[in-house]
Amino acid sequence: MEEKNKLTKKGGWIIVRKSIPTDIPITPLSVFYATAEKREIRNNWIVNQICPTNIGFIPEAELETIQMAVIKNEYGEIKLNPDEYSILSEDAVSAIMDSIGNGYELVYLSESEDGSVKFTSKKVKDAVFYCNSRGISRVEALKMCLGMISSKNLFYIEPQRSTLSMFLYEEDIEFGEKKKREYKEKLQKTDE
């Protein structure tokens, strides 16, 4: 039986639960396809009991293996600790995708200048193309293909400001938007 909040070897869909202190901006309540990565850390409870002031390295602290979720947005790759994300079922992702344009937006990571999407999987590309040729929108086609997606390089779902305002303080939303603007400016400076 699978543990709750554990990604499979193949990966899975997650939702970011809170603001994350990282250089790469990430919006809380965003939905990503994530891959799993294991990392060994010192058990914080033991470290805090032995040395509450966290001064120096404590070799007696037990190593603990945690499973991190590796996600990607347009700014880069981010590794999330288990308390920063929750696993979503395909049905939950599909329900969130029903809100695209009305609270959420789809952000493509591999979009061409002409608006077409560069699919990383031929299987998904063919399925979406077939659906499109039958008059089904790209978003609806992607919903149908959620089970075939196994890459964090295709798209993610980001909440719009109206959705964020229901769950976050206005100052937190402003801080996140400011962080995105600063990161974009930083990227533009390095490109020059």
Report the sheet with the most strands, covering strand number, pairing sense and barrel closure: 5 strands, antiparallel
Q: Helicity level, as a percent range?
A: 25-40%
What is the residue-mean pLDDT, rounded to a whole number?
81
Kindly provide the radius of gyration, computed on alpha-carbon positions and rounded to a whole number of angstroms: 19 Å
Spell out the helices and strands N to C.
Answer: EEHEEEHEHHEHH
Cα end-to-end separation: 52 Å
- Gross morphology is globular
Spans of 5+ residues with little confidence (pLDDT < 50)?
Answer: none
* Beta-strand percent range: 15-25%
| Total beta strand runs | 7
Order of adjacent strands in the largest pleated sheet: 4-3-2-1-5
Report the total helices: 6
Polypeptide structure, described:
This protein is α+β, with helices and mostly antiparallel strands. The protein has 6 helices and 7 strands. Strands 4-3-2-1-5 form a 5-stranded antiparallel sheet. It has a two-stranded antiparallel ribbon with strand order 6-7. Helix 3 (122-133) crosses helix 4 (138-144). The longest helix has 22 residues, at 170-191.
Topology, please?
Layout: E1 12-16, E2 31-42, H1 44-50, E3 63-73, E4 76-80, E5 85-88, H2 90-97, E6 104-108, H3 122-133, H4 138-144, E7 155-159, H5 161-167, H6 170-191
Antiparallel strand pairs: 1-2, 1-5, 2-3, 3-4, 6-7
Helix pairs in contact: 3-4
Short description:
The chain is α+β, with helices and mostly antiparallel strands and 192 residues long.
